From TrEMBL:
<dbReference type="Pfam" id="PF13561">
    <property type="entry name" value="adh_short_C2"/>
</dbReference>
<dbReference type="InterPro" id="IPR050259">
    <property type="entry name" value="SDR"/>
</dbReference>
<dbReference type="GO" id="GO:0032787">
    <property type="term" value="P:monocarboxylic acid metabolic process"/>
</dbReference>
<protein>
    <submittedName>
        <fullName>SDR family oxidoreductase</fullName>
    </submittedName>
</protein>
<dbReference type="InterPro" id="IPR020904">
    <property type="entry name" value="Sc_DH/Rdtase_CS"/>
</dbReference>
<keyword id="KW-0560">Oxidoreductase</keyword>
<dbReference type="InterPro" id="IPR036291">
    <property type="entry name" value="NAD(P)-bd_dom_sf"/>
</dbReference>
<dbReference type="InterPro" id="IPR002347">
    <property type="entry name" value="SDR_fam"/>
</dbReference>
<comment type="similarity">
    <text>Belongs to the short-chain dehydrogenases/reductases (SDR) family.</text>
</comment>
<dbReference type="GO" id="GO:0016491">
    <property type="term" value="F:oxidoreductase activity"/>
</dbReference>
Length: 258
């Protein structure tokens, strides 16, 4: 096991899905800065994955970092990856990877909706099944799911995406109850709008969207990553089954203004 970044304490290994860019990249960097060894998955961005690995190895030469190409929309690809890592011990799992699909509920395409559910929900359950037993045997582990405020509030055009994130929330709460006595915490982080490439298709609406957020801006990826980092820390050992919105006050606001 590699030494932590300060050279004093042993590193704990964390798996992050979708860690090559955007919020995932910020989470990977936050984990490494806290002294964790990090394994992350990527799919469509091999160049960015390699860049992220180079950044980590340069900044934290005593750490251990790996990147694996995994197509979370493909059950066979996930099973192959789980078989590769199931004999290894991970202290943490951060399920960050996600697939968006915008559609009105009445005209939702089932194939595209099922693809979103596979990436957002079913891939998480398969990865957790492969890792959580070793966590419970060690009586130590952290699982953080990156959900969405859309799991908490309805929005027009997000029926499939919202349903997948709501399914994750139900799963997190149950898994938290089932693992709490064995030293494993499981929590649901619910970001609002984050300033990443995922929102690029909505650039024309950026200013209007920001005007509806009480904080008046989108979140920086690092602001979400910092919370994930805390949930992985010893200080978060009594937080489990929690839903933690990080949305600039969006879900606290009544969306009708005088």
């Amino acid at each position: 096991m590699a030494a932590a970044a300060d050279g004093k304490t042993p590193a704990r290994r964390v798996l992050v899905t979708g860690g090559a860019r955007g919020l995932g990249r910020a989470i990977v960097h936050a984990m490494a800065a806290s002294g964790h060894d990090v394994t992350f998955t990527y799919n469509a961005s091999p160049d960015k994955a390699e860049t992220t690995l180079e950044e980590l190895r340069t900044a934290y030469p005593n750490g251990a970092f790996e990147a694996h190409s995994v197509d979370l929309s493909d059950r066979g690809s996930i099973d192959e990856f789980v078989s590769l890592i199931e004999d290894e011990t991970f202290y943490g799992l951060v399920h960050n990877a996600g697939l968006t699909y915008d559609s009105l509920a009445a005209v939702m395409d089932q194939d595209r909706a099922e693809a979103a559910m596979q990436v957002n929900f079913w891939s998480m359950t398969r990865l957790a099944a492969g890792l959580v037993r070793r966590m419970t045997r060690a009586r130590s582990g952290r699982i953080v799911v990156i959900g969405s405020v859309i799991a908490l509030r309805g929005t027009i055009g997000n029926s499939a995406y919202g349903a997948s994130k709501a399914a994750l929330l139900g799963y997190v709460r149950t898994l938290a109850l089932e693992t709490a006595r064995r030293g494993v915490t499981v929590n649901f982080v619910a970001p609002g709008f984050i300033d990443t490439d995922m929102l690029a298709p909505y650039a024309d609406y950026h200013q209007h969207m920001e005007s509806q957020i009480p904080a008046g801006r989108f979140a920086a990826p690092e602001e979400i990553a910092n919370l994930v980092d805390f949930l992985m820390s010893p200080g978060a050992g009594y937080i489990t089954g929690a839903v933690l919105p990080v949305d600039g006050g969006l879900t606290a606001a009544i969306p009708v203004h005088r």
